[in-house]
Write a structure and sequence with these properties.
Blueprint: E1 12-18, E2 27-33, H1 51-64, E3 67-73, H2 75-81, H3 83-97, E4 104-108, E5 120-123, H4 131-154, H5 160-163, H6 169-178
Parallel strand pairs: 1-4, 4-5
Antiparallel strand pairs: 1-2, 2-3
Length: 201
C-alpha cells in the first residue's frame, strides 16, 4: 500500500516524468498536490497499470487534486541540454504551473536540482511508494501518450500510436525506411548509424 505523505503537516507535491527512455517525442513531467485524505485502491506506479486504468485514474486525480500541472520539454531541448536536465526542467516547469504553491516536493528518482526555495527529497522508485508521486506518474504518462497519439496522425509511418516513441524493433525499422523526423531525439542512438534526415514535414 502506498504512503499518503512524507510530512503530515506540509503541503506536498509529488513529481514524476514520462518518456525519458524514448527516442522520439518530448519528455513530460507532472506535479500533483493531493488532499491528505485522498485514497484510491487502484492508484500505483503507472508502469504497473493498464492503459484503461491509467485513463480512469487520470480523471479521478485531475478532479480531486488540490492542484496539478503537466509540462513538456521538446526533443530539441533534450538534444541541447541532455535528458536528465530536460527531465528536471520539465518537473520545475510543472511545479511552477501549480495554482497552489507546495511546501515540499517529493521527487521520483535520485537526481533533482532545487526549485525556488521549496525543500525536496528524492525517492528511488517513489512512484511505487508515495501516492502523490504515483499520481504524478499517471498524469505524466497519460498526457504524454495522448501527445504521441496526436503526433501519430501526422506521422503514421512510425507507429507512435503503438510504441509512443519508445525504441521498439518496429519503430527502428521505420526509421531505417523513412529516416528521422523533427520529433526524433538526434542525440540518442535511434539507430547504430543515424539515417539521413529528410522527413521534416
Amino acid at each position: 500500500m502506498l504512503l499518503p505523505f512524507l510530512h503530515e503537516h506540509l503541503l506536498e507535491a509529488g513529481c514524476d516524468e514520462a518518456g525519458r527512455g524514448c527516442i522520439a517525442g518530448p519528455v513530460c513531467a507532472a506535479a500533483v498536490i493531493l488532499p491528505k485524505n485522498f485514497n484510491h485502491s487502484l492508484i500505483n506506479d503507472s508502469k504497473k497499470l493498464s492503459e484503461s486504468v491509467r485513463e480512469e485514474l487520470r480523471v479521478v486525480i485531475e478532479r480531486e487534486a488540490l492542484a496539478w500541472a503537466v509540462s513538456f520539454v521538446s526533443p530539441q531541448k533534450i538534444d541541447q541540454i541532455n535528458i536528465l536536465k530536460a527531465s528536471i526542467l520539465a518537473m520545475h516547469q510543472a511545479v511552477a504551473q501549480l495554482t497552489v504553491e507546495p511546501e515540499f516536493l517529493l521527487i521520483d528518482g535520485n537526481r533533482f536540482y532545487p526549485y525556488s526555495n521549496i525543500p525536496h527529497t528524492c525517492v528511488i522508485k517513489g512512484d511505487g511508494k508515495y501516492t502523490a508521486i504515483a499520481a504524478a506518474s499517471i498524469l505524466a504518462k497519460t498526457h504524454r501518450d495522448e501527445y504521441m497519439m496526436g503526433l501519430d496522425k501526422k506521422f503514421p509511418n512510425y507507429l507512435w500510436l503503438k510504441n509512443k516513441g519508445y525504441p521498439t524493433v518496429e519503430h527502428r525499422s521505420m526509421i531505417r525506411q523513412y529516416g528521422m523526423t523533427k520529433h526524433h531525439r538526434k542525440s540518442f542512438a535511434c539507430l547504430p548509424k543515424q539515417p539521413v534526415l529528410f522527413n521534416e514535414c
